[in-house]
Every structure is written in C-alpha cells, then in structure tokens.
Amino acid sequence: MKSLVGVLALLAALSSCTPAQTSPGAQQDDAFASALERYENLGQDEASYALTLTGSALAAAIESQALLDSLDYQRLGKAKFKVMSSSQTTATACMDLRDLQVLDSGGFPVTNSLDRGTVLIEIEDGLISKFELLGSRC
Q1: Alpha carbon distance 115, 132 (integer Å)
Q2: Which of 64, 66, 69 is nearest to 105 (CA)?
Q3: What is the CB neighbour count within 10 angstroms for residue 2?
Q4: Alpha carbons 64 and 70: distance in angstroms, whole number
Q5: Which of 101, 130, 134 is nearest to 117 (CA)?
Q6: Residues forming a β-bridge with 86
Q7: Which helix (H) or strand (E) covers residue 25, if one does?
Q8: Are 82 and 94 in contact (CB under 8 A)?
Q9: What pLDDT score does 29 carry?
Q10: Please, which residues bridge with residue 90 across strands?
Q11: Contact residues for 16 (Cβ-Cβ < 8 A; gap 6+)
C-alpha cells in the first residue's frame, strides 16, 4: 500500500512567458514552472512522457502507469505545482493533489492520504530527470 501512495503521488501526476529582463533566480523558477506545467498536462502514454521526462523520472512514470493499467485503475484530474525554491538544476515544489482522483476498476475512489506534499525536482536539458516525494506537507 505504501508503494501505491507513492505511485499516486508520482502520477500527479505529470510554458510560462518571461519578461525581457528577469533575474537569474526568476529565470530558473520559470524553467521549472514550464517543465512542471508540461508535467501537469501529461497524457497517459509513453510518447507524452518522453516530451517532459527523462532518466529516473521517465522510468518511474512508465512503471507507475503500467501498475495503474495492470490494476485497471484510472486517474481523473491533475496535480498542480508551485515552485518554492530553485537552484540551477534542482527545485523544491509544492505538489497539490486535491484535484486528482484515482478510481479503481469498479469506479470507486482509491484513498490517497497525501493531499499536498513537497517534491524535489531535477531538470536536465529542459526535461524533468528526477521527481522525488520528500514526504513533508506544504
């Protein structure tokens, strides 16, 4: 069950304009916000994952979707993210799962004990390469 909670958190689930003169910190936040916006709008197939994810984040998303498919579960809605802090390639963000629902094969909601949590994100070449739930609420 613990892994299912992690899967549900990961599925959360999956471009912003910048002014001409922005500080380096703002540009980094915008890069993460853009990647997270693409993640929020992911489809449920490998082709859409590859446009947003790479490395361990891509492998985990494919594995999570395969698990959901094998259980005949479906997800409705999507997670939302807000970057809390960032550096050149790493950010922490608040992941809000309140608009995401996972239904079992009978159409009944699967309980998720986490409604908002902090995630660690790494970006490589504009793609999310690491997506790790840190466990703390935000």
Answers
A1: 16
A2: 69
A3: 6
A4: 10
A5: 134
A6: 91
A7: helix 24-40
A8: yes
A9: 63
A10: 122
A11: 30, 33, 34, 37
Which amino acid, 8? L
Strand ranges (E), 78-115: 80-86, 90-96, 100-103
136 and 45 Cβ atoms separated by less than 8 Å? no
| Tokens representing residue 111 in the block | 């309980």
Percent of the chain with pLDDT over 70: 79
Burial of 137 (0-12, 13-18, 19+ CB in 10 A): exposed
Going from the C-alpha of 22 to that of each of 18, 81, 96, 100, 128, the distances in angstroms are 7, 21, 27, 33, 22
Handedness of CA 82, 85, 91, 93 (dihedral sign): negative
The owner of tokens 């390639």 is 89
* R_g of the chain computed on alpha carbons: 15
CB-based contact 60:10 (threshold 8 Å): yes
Give per-residue pLDDT as tens, 16-72: 223 333 344 555 667 888 888 888 888 777 788 888 999 999 999 999 989 999 999
**Whole-model pTM over 0.90:** no
